[in-house]
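Invent a record, attention on C-alpha cells:
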Amino acid sequence: MPWEPPIPPCRIHIVLAEMGVPAVTRALLYDLVGKGLRDQPRGQRTRKNCRH
C-alpha cells in the first residue's frame, strides 16, 4: 500500500512558493519528492493535471 503524503505533490509547489523558496530549489525538491511519490511515468499529462 503506497504511502499517502499529507500534501498532494502538486500542492507542494504552491506551499513552497508561498514560503518564498526559490524556483530552482522548488524544482529540485519537487523532483526528489515526486520520484518517491509517483509510480506513474513522468510526462506532460501529469504536469498539466497539476496546474491550478
